[in-house]
Amino acid sequence: MILDVQDVVKGYTQGQKRLDVLDKLALQVDKAQSLAILGKSGSGKSTFLSLLGGLDRPDQGKIIVNGKDIASMKESELAKYRAQNIGIVFQQYHLMKTFTALENVMLPLEILKKDQPRKKAMEALEQVGLADRADHFPHQLSGGESQRVAVARAIAPEPKIILADEPSGNLDAATGESVMSMIFDLCKRRSSVLILVTHDVDLAKSCDQVYELNEKRLQLL
Ligand code: ADP
Ligand code: MG
Question: What is the tens place of the pLDDT at every residue in 26-43?
Fold first, then answer.
């Protein structure tokens, strides 16, 4: 089992009020495949991805990735897990403004002390068709190009799981589609699990499994 999410509970507390977002949510992924998550705005999709990505922790439950429960990891261990196992593509590209495209892609490789980070980053940029933009800074890139840099950064360390939170949400339809097909392609080629949050029902249907986040849980459609 690559991913085994058991009875995850997550809510937010603001002042006296508690907002329950996820309640006894479960999900199992046993092979490299693509999963889409649909759901209304505010249903908890980004919350769930942030738990899978180790950016936040569940209040209860287990998130077992390759046999290890990330919900019970110490912060230092969690940071390592994140770097080694997870690639994240957000709707906002979250590139470092003062770094070139190449440097942005190199960053996680350097943090992981991978061999030849420059070469590997360049290869990832080639795979998203942006080798000729390697020295551009984020403000010198279009939205689609920025997102492709973000995709290159996510895949370069060869993570087992790619999380994509409405990755085409800020792009025009054609650009969004090309970025998406790139993500599909790269995940397939690298045998990564892809978990894709999207509003686009057609896009969701191109995934191996489609779930809806509804009533605080994931339901297989
Ligand atoms: P989605 O991605 O499906 O649109 P989110 O996971 O972003 O939904 O949010 C789920 C619910 O949790 C929303 O009602 C949102 O307002 C609330 N929420 C999200 N993040 C926080 C936070 N950090 N603090 C308080 N409430 C939050
Ligand atoms: Mg969201």
Answer: 999 999 999 999 999 999
Give me the CATH number covering residue 42.
3.40.50.300
User: What are residue 217's phi and psi, to 5 degrees?
Assistant: -135, 165
Measured in Å, residue 129 CA sits from the centre of ligand 1 at 34
Which chain residues have CB less than 5 Å from ligand 2, an ion?
45-46
Domain assignment present for 66 = no
Pairwise CA distance, residues 109 & 151, whole Å = 14
In the numeric block, which tokens belong to residue 180?
A: 């998406």
pTM (global) more than 0.85: yes
**155: in domain:** yes
Atom of ligand 1 nearest to the CA of 45: 3
- Whether the CB of 41 sits within 6 Å of ligand 1: yes
Per the listing, tokens 């995709």 go with 151
Collapsing DSSP to helix, strand or coil, 63 comes out as strand
Contacts of residue 121, defined as CB under 8 A and 6 or more positions apart, other chains included, come to: 102, 105, 106, 109, 152, 156
Residue 139, domain extent: 31-56+74-220
Q: How many domains does the chain have?
A: 1
Residue closest to 217 by CA, chosen among 1, 70, 10:
10
Residue 21 resides in a domain: no
User: Does 62 fall in a domain?
Assistant: no
